[in-house]
Specification:
The protein is an all-alpha fold. It is built from 20 helices and 4 strands. It has helices spanning 2-23, 41-56, 58-84, 86-114, 127-160, 168-177, 191-198, 210-234, 255-271, 286-305, 308-313, 319-334, 336-343, 351-356, 360-373, 376-391, 397-407, 409-421, 431-442, 450-473; strands at residues 118-120, 249-251, 276-279, 282-285. Helix 3 (58-84) packs antiparallel against helix 4, helix 15 (360-373) runs parallel beside helix 18 (409-421) and helix 16 packs antiparallel against helix 18. The longest helix has 34 residues, at 127-160.
Length: 474
């Protein structure tokens, strides 16, 4: 295995060395016009690894995914640093300070605080009760994030349906709504929208896709109620609980104060301008640094004040957030050339891609298709930069974004909806999907396989819905 790893590393470096060496001497301000298409191979490699290795080598992936992430990051970073020197250092530092650290801190804070809120008790899992729980989770997702809402609501719905035989569809629709589509209305809701917020999209701009989100949610909730009513009638009476369900109560409710602190910090960073701070040559907004400090503080306060028993009740562990941190470290490093090339617009190596996608509907499906199998956060960022390069090539990002959110609303709406909605198409489309699947399986629910999920649920239900959304909105 070690020899194979060294061989792969060597081959990856050789693929990159030649084009980098030819172009390094010409490197200037905009490297996107000079980077070759070869340079995105590590980015494609890490995304394909995330998509395929859990399916074909699950044991290896479980124990070695940090090494896989590091392998692809090094495959790109070593030749990039060697040939582009100061430019490479600046680009890597920029994406770590401006994008990766704020991204992970927000996820960590939401994950930590929501893990301290224990919804105790249960309700009888009737179609009406389940639909209401899904509705509440969908609405919460835009407030505390799809990760926070998923971790908060999955336990209650599992307990409410523990007596039922037919409950897989309930968890699947939970993934559709709570873990994905519900997070479409604010940057807190889903990582792609937060990345857009970090790049200048106003906090409440995402309310532009409220009609699409409401349409999708209503269709799915009605479809779920009909489906669950059918399965509910098939439940045998002896399986129903003999005793009255325990009334719901919330323990650790003081964590809602910390959630409010997180929301306030993000709003503060998007509305207050305090100037820039120079961090290792990277200019970061002072208000963003304050936001990050508050996020850390809220998470630490939650850890200090929340009783251990409450987190045990939620079966809280750090494994999910650690997996996200490791994988996204590699993703953010290897995405550098793709972003730079796309920012160059029709002067970059991906000019053919930018030219081939021209309508909002095409952006919706291009972003959504990649978000289904790769990861919706980097996919959003890639096409966000693509549309900037298409309509505003050579214009500074701040000015380009200001124009985009006013002049090209349907395009950004399509990119946002595609990234958030279609992350539900597969287990790997969004981080909470696999987390919910794992928790459900631990509770004894036999979840469908990767392809079973697609062919039995997401393709017939979601793809049909997204075709309808395309004709209605895009």
């Amino acid at each position: 295995m070690k020899k194979a790893g060294l061989l792969l590393t060597g081959l990856s470096l050789l693929l990159l060395l030649f084009p980098f060496s030819c172009l390094a001497a010409e490197a200037a301000g905009n490297i996107g016009t000079m980077l070759p298409i070869w340079s995105i191979l590590p980015f494609a490699g890490i995304l394909l690894s995330i998509a395929l290795m859990p399916l074909f080598v699950p044991h290896f992936w479980h124990y070695h995914f940090p090494k896989v992430s590091a392998f692809w990051a090094v495959s790109f970073a070593v030749p990039f640093l060697y040939f582009f020197r100061e430019i490479a250092v600046h680009e890597i530092a920029h994406i770590i300070i401006i994008d990766y650290i704020p991204f992970i801190l927000l996820l960590w804070a939401l994950f930590t605080v929501s893990g301290g809120i224990y919804v105790k008790g249960s309700l009888k899992g009737t179609p009406a009760v389940n639909t209401v729980i899904l509705l509440i989770g969908t609405l919460l997702a835009s407030v505390i994030g799809t990760t926070g809402a998923s971790m908060l609501m999955i336990r209650p719905i599992l307990r409410s349906n523990a007596w039922r035989v037919h409950k897989v569809h309930t968890i699947v629709f939970f993934i559709f709504l709570v873990s994905n589509i519900g997070g479409a209305l604010t940057p807190l809701g889903d990582p792609p929208l937060f990345l857009g917020f970090l790049h200048g999209v106003p906090f409440f701009w995402t309310m532009h896709i409220l009609p699409e989100m409401a349409f999708a949610s209503v269709v799915l909730l009605v479809s779920y109620f009909i489906m669950d009513s059918y399965f509910y009638k098939k439940e045998s009476k002896p399986d129903a609980p003999d005793t009255e369900p325990e009334p719901l109560s919330i323990e650790g409710s003081y964590n809602f104060i910390f959630l409010a602190g997180i929301i306030a910090a993000v709003l503060f960073s998007g509305t207050v301008k305090l100037g820039d701070v120079n961090l290792f040559g990277i200019h970061q907004a002072a208000e963003n640094l304050i936001k990050d400090v508050v996020l850390i503080l809220m998470g630490v306060l939650s850890l200090v004040f929340t009783k251990t028993d409450l987190r045990k009740g939620n079966e809280f562990s750090w494994a999910p957030i650690m997996e996200v941190a490791y994988l996204f470290a590699g993703i953010f490093i290897t995405i550098i050339p793709a972003l730079a090339i796309l920012k160059a617009g029709e002067q970059g190596a991906l000019a053919w891609l930018i030219k081939s996608i021209s309508t909002p509907a095409q952006y919706f499906w291009a972003v959504g298709s990649l978000s289904s199998f790769l990861d919706n956060a980097p996919t959003y960022l890639t096409f966000f930069n693509s549309v900037l390069g298409k309509f505003y090539p050579g214009i500074p990002e701040a000015q380009a974004v200001s124009a985009l959110i006013v002049e090209k609303i349907p395009y950004l709406a399509a990119i946002s909806a595609g990234a958030v909605f279609m992350g539900a198409n597969t287990y790997i489309g969004n981080a909470p999907n696999f987390m919910v699947k794992s928790i459900a399986e631990e509770a004894g629910v036999k979840m469908p396989s990767f392809f079973g999920y697609m062919f039995k649920y997401s393709i017939p239900i979601l793809i049909t819905l997204f075709v309808l959304i395309t004709f209605v909105f895009f």
